[in-house]
């Protein structure tokens, strides 16, 4: 830990994953003491279990980037400390002496499927993306006792982002692997993900039609060009938006070519199809884009789609923290670019907790943008330094909390200690 009195300002950062680590790096480089409060042992957030297991290279790259940003002078990692649980939000804001509090606690809950009474059928025909991907990542591990899901042919997905594509891939890969196993062929899923389904089948003298599968279908409420598969630049021109739309279409076409799932754009779910206590499919309404680009219903165009399983993949939202104002599912903000939270002059948000996107690039970009603005604000607060011992008290509290959770101040040693055993391939 740096010598007391070295700092002139102190910032609490809630969450140590992509957005939190980005902010910690930039703010500490500007001379602020940064205390990163992490609810888990490890700081990786949804990088750890929000990505399917084949994203191992990306996962390890993100781990390394986060580790490097948290294991630097001026950054004090505090694990096992969930805000609203082990430490109250009010105490953090008013009791520790921080100049600013930055919320980078991400989006951990699935956004509810926007159909009346849909959640009545969770695990009775309706599955949400986050537990589904968690199951896929871990179900083969010895002793696994988490959620369990049966992959069904004819599954329908509701979504449209990169995470939805990953869900579609999981369904298709599992369906094909099980169809091959029924023929006595054991096929490695990660190998099939790399090669693609058609090429894998060809190696075994088979084609998709030979399997007798329908596969899964992804329903999206807007056009394919609107799918958030690639980020548009800020203040994009019409020409730039058109180019991004073309890139999005190509990304989707490549995924469909490799994994053979179907996509139905311009349909939104409006009702449930049920049989007894089970969800049996969804009622969809046709949509179009109005002059503002919003998806609106087309009168009279309704489609009932029967399905053994519905998977909702329409994004994730933050866990609510008592004392924080919310606008529906996201933080209530005065200024989106700055992430300024309504009702506070020293509380800000960055990354997914503000954007509602599960995109690592978007999260990192927004965090860097907010951090740059906060550095300007901190410079105006830095004159007093530690004249009243406030920052010394902040450091004392940090050390006290770290000791309480068994953290000795060495990020590298802690990371090695809490890392799970390497999974066998």
Describe what this molecule looks like in 3D.
It contains 14 helices and 19 strands. With 425 residues, the chain is an alpha/beta fold. The chain has two domains: 9-108 and 316-418, 3-Layer(aba) Sandwich (Rossmann fold); 112-313, FAD/NAD(P)-binding domain. The chain has a five-stranded parallel sheet, with helices on both faces. It has a five-stranded parallel sheet with strand order 6-13-7-8-9. A three-stranded antiparallel sheet has the order 10-11-12, with no helix packed on it. Strand 15 (326-327) and strand 16 form a beta hairpin. Helix 1 packs parallel to helix 12 (360-381). It is globular and about 75 Å long. The model is unreliable at 1-5 (pLDDT under 50).
CATH topology type of the largest domain = Rossmann fold
Extended strand count: 19
CATH superfamily of the largest domain: NAD(P)-binding Rossmann-like Domain
Distance between the termini: 39 Å
* CATH architecture tag of the largest domain: 3-Layer(aba) Sandwich
Please report which band the strand proportion falls in: under 5%, 5-15%, 15-25%, 25-35%, 35-45% or over 45%: 15-25%
Count of alpha/pi helices: 14
CATH class designation of the largest domain: Alpha Beta
Gyration radius from CA atoms, angstroms: 24 Å
How many strands, what sense, and barrel or not for the largest sheet?
Answer: 5 strands, parallel
Helix share, percent = 25-40%
- Tally of domains: 2
The spatial strand order of the largest sheet comes to: 3-2-1-4-19
| Gross geometry | globular
Computed structural class:
alpha/beta
The residue-averaged pLDDT reads: 92
Q: Report low-confidence residues grouped into runs of 5 or more.
A: 1-5
